[in-house]
Amino acid sequence: MSATGESTAPSAVGGERVRFGALCWNQYTDWRSLGEAGVRADRLGFDSVWTWDHLYPIIGNADGPILEGWLTLAGWAVTTERVRLGLMVGANTFRNPALVAKMAATLDHISRGRAVLGIGGAWFETEHTAYGVEFGGSPGERLRWLDEAARIMRGMLDGHRPSGDRYYRAREVRLDPAPVQRRLPLLIGGGGERRTLRTVARYADASNFGGSVENVRRKDEVLRRHCVEVGRDTQAIERTVGTGVMIIREDPAEARRVLERTFEQNGRARLWTDQPVGTVEMVVERLRRYMALGIRHFIVGFPAPYDAETMERVVTEVKPALEAA
Q1: Best label site of 43, 195, 197, 232, fewest CB within 10 Å?
Q2: Rounded mean pLDDT of the chain?
């Protein structure tokens, strides 16, 4: 942080300007629509495109369709030109971390150096039970798995030959070919103050927080304390913030109606409250509060049917207004 409280961290997934990512939900959709949403975000000028790593829908009725996350990224890798690509975030429980590092490096080659390895502890027990994936006995256990997994993945991506310790059996595993990027970014999602943020401090190039300005401020303060304790420069870790679902219209009432229809189409989901929904001016004012904390990369939620008007106005109106501020 600078003396004014603004982050001077180099970006793991972009430049120093205000950046926007499009988190395109992969539930209650089809590949044509989801694939086109990623291409649209790339064409409009978004800086990053993301999707979920879930096997069942997590919003609305879980008994609905959802496309697999890593294969979605691979599809986007060959149809987009410049956006960064990642999961927001990968479920560490689903796959061996050494395999995940291999997948991320391969995605980096397919995308010509645009991959981000997003990872988190996982939380949705329903899909684990259905697919027979080990869920662990508690959140704490899953976060202990995540810490060791992050060490293995970061080591492989950096050209070392790490081995597992307590939870994984990797033995001096090598990554060949290496990623295209000199340092493929590792983004860790979650705000657990005792374990997750300590893992971020040890291994991550970027973090992802959500919630209110007050929540983001607190998580950032905790992360900086962990960085001091583990001897990591806090400026080396980019902070990203999930905005929630954004709908922009000239009439706030119309924006609200679009939000309601969108959630109805996503498994008749319960409507989220306190979202960035309304006019450009309303959205800009909301995001400016996060910028006061040094946040420069916003991840915007786009459920199917992927509102094209909002996507365009984020880049052509919201972003310039924030940069002018």
Answers
A1: 43
A2: 94
Residue 92 lies in a domain: yes
Range of the domain at 225: 19-324
CATH of the domain at 183: 3.20.20.30
- In angstroms, what CA-CA distances link 249 with 38, 95, 313? 21, 41, 9
Q: Please report which confidence band the pLDDT of residue 325 belongs to, taking 50, 70 and 90 as the band edges.
A: confident
Give the number of other Cβ atoms within 10 Å of residue 126's Cβ: 15
Q: Is residue 79 in some structural domain? A: yes
On whether residue 102 sits in a domain, the answer given is yes
Tell me, yes or no, whether 13 lies in a domain. Answer: no
What's at 122, amino acid-wise? A
Mean per-residue pLDDT for 47-74? 98
User: What pLDDT does residue 318 have?
Assistant: 97
The domain tally of the chain equals: 1
Residue 299 structure tokens? 């991840």
Residue spans of beta strands (DSSP E) within the chain: 19-24, 48-51, 84-87, 90-91, 117-120, 186-189, 206-209, 238-245, 247-248, 277-278, 297-302
For the chain, what percent of residues have pLDDT higher than 90? 94
Residue carrying structure tokens 């000199």 = 182
DSSP character string of 253-293:
HHHHHHHHHHHHHTTTPPPPSS-SEE-HHHHHHHHHHHHTT
- Residue 144 corresponds to which tokens in the numbers above? 């202990």
pLDDT of 14 higher than 50 = no
